[in-house]
């Protein structure tokens, strides 16, 4: 009988926290932009997360107001603590 280890990024909130940590460690480009591929690659290959975990974590981080995802999906921005995304709509 084989025992399977739990996936650390299986919980969307845990994946969202990992994505925020990755985004915070990257130097943003123009206007605070962090290209998605700069957080996607470390998440998939260093943290061994899956594509669906990345998507769920990104959606959770946006929902909680930790990251702002551009409508094109090409970059994110770190939001200041306490900033509500609904105020921008």
Question: Overview of this structure, please?
Answer:
This protein is mostly helical and 89 residues long. The chain has a single domain (12-79), classed as Arc Repressor Mutant, subunit A, CATH 1.10.10. The protein has three helices and three strands. The protein has helices at 12-24, 36-46, 51-64, and strands at 34-35, 67-69, 75-78. A three-stranded antiparallel β-sheet has the order 1-3-2. A hairpin with a 5-residue loop joins strand 2 and strand 3. Helix 1 crosses helix 2 (36-46) and helix 1 (12-24) packs across helix 3 (51-64). The termini are far apart.
Task: Describe what is shown at a glance.
With 89 residues, this protein is mainly alpha-helical.
What letter string, H or E per element, gives the SSE order? Answer: HEHHEE
Helix count, per DSSP?
Answer: 3
CATH topology: Arc Repressor Mutant, subunit A
Which architecture per CATH? Orthogonal Bundle
Largest sheet: 3 strands, antiparallel
Could you give the order of strands across the largest sheet?
1-3-2
Number of strands: 3
| Helical residue percent band | 40-55%
Shape: elongated
What fraction of the residues are assigned to beta strands by DSSP? 5-15%
């Amino acid at each position: 009988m084989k025992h399977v280890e739990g996936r650390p990024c299986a919980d969307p909130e845990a994946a969202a926290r990992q994505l925020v940590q990755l985004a915070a460690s990257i130097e943003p480009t123009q206007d605070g932009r962090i290209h998605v591929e700069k957080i996607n690659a470390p998440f998939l290959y260093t943290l061994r997360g899956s594509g669906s975990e990345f998507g769920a974590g990104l959606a959770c981080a946006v929902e909680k107001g930790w990251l702002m995802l551009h409508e094109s999906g090409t970059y994110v921005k770190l939001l200041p603590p306490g900033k509500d995304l609904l105020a921008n709509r």
